[in-house]
Amino acid sequence: MKLILILFIVFLGTNIVFADKYIPWSENRKLNWDDFQGDVGRYPEDFKIPDKSNLAFTWGDPKLLNYNFTKVDSVICQTQIIDINAIGMFDTESSWVNYTQRNNLKLLNHEQRHFDIIEVFARKIKTDMLYQIIECPHGFYDESQIHNQIRLLASEIGNMQQKMHDNYDMEVKNDASTQNTWDKNIEKLLMEGESIPIFHKEMPPLVQIKNGIKQKDVTCTQGWILTKNHSDKPVCVTPAVSNILEKRGWKIGN
């Protein structure tokens, strides 16, 4: 059985160190019952438990580890996420198993799949947010507000996973044979979220060039206009802004 609290912790450095209580998701490191170190029957404060007959409880969350963003358009104050990383984390101190179930491998697999679902949504954070445009909240560049916007977006995606956990528990409880179907579906979701295309349709022009695209082949997302400043650097802007920039001497198109 799995219910979670979504927490997002941002580490802006390159060396990520996790507290001992957390186990980061890994394809080569599956959970074992020794990882479930919490007090049996104990749930987080203010946590609504729909079923008190649980034999095991998994607690974890997708953690937003680090990200980078760059200014896309200084005129209308937009930034774009150009790098982002997140991972599913298992909380050993809050997860537990009934002592009578420590040899129950089927139950252990069920809990592992809950951990896998956490990782699915950690990958969804990466795929959904990479190259996303972030509007300046107050119309002017404020780096702290940009950080808040990014964390909020990650939190909204992470909160979507609870429905999947609930459906998973409900279906398997009603029909144990559906576990095999869930195993296959979760594996498929992990594979789908494993890779992020290098050339994304919304990469900003300078990132496209950095990834090997020739400047003459740089494109903008549909509805945006390619412009070049006085230094011949390409920028994607809205049609309204392109009109303003053209009057200022900017070149429109390649």
Give the amount of beta strand, in percent: 15-25%
Indicate the low-confidence ranges by residue numbers.
Answer: 3-17, 196-200
Helix and strand content put the structural class at alpha+beta
Rg from alpha-carbon coordinates: 23 Å
- Helix proportion: 25-40%
Oligomer: single chain
Number of strands: 9
Q: What number of domains? A: 2
**Total number of helical segments?**
6
Order of helices and strands: EEEEEHEHHHHEEHE
What composes the largest sheet? 4 strands, antiparallel
Name the overall outline.
elongated
Q: End-to-end span in angstroms?
A: 56 Å
Mean pLDDT: 82
Describe how the helices and strands are arranged:
Elements: E1 22-24, E2 56-57, E3 60-73, E4 78-91, E5 96-97, H1 105-129, E6 133-135, H2 143-159, H3 161-174, H4 178-192, H5 205-210, E7 225-228, E8 234-237, H6 239-247, E9 251-252
Antiparallel strand pairs: 1-4, 2-5, 3-4, 4-6, 7-8, 7-9
Helix pairs in contact: 1-2, 1-3, 1-4
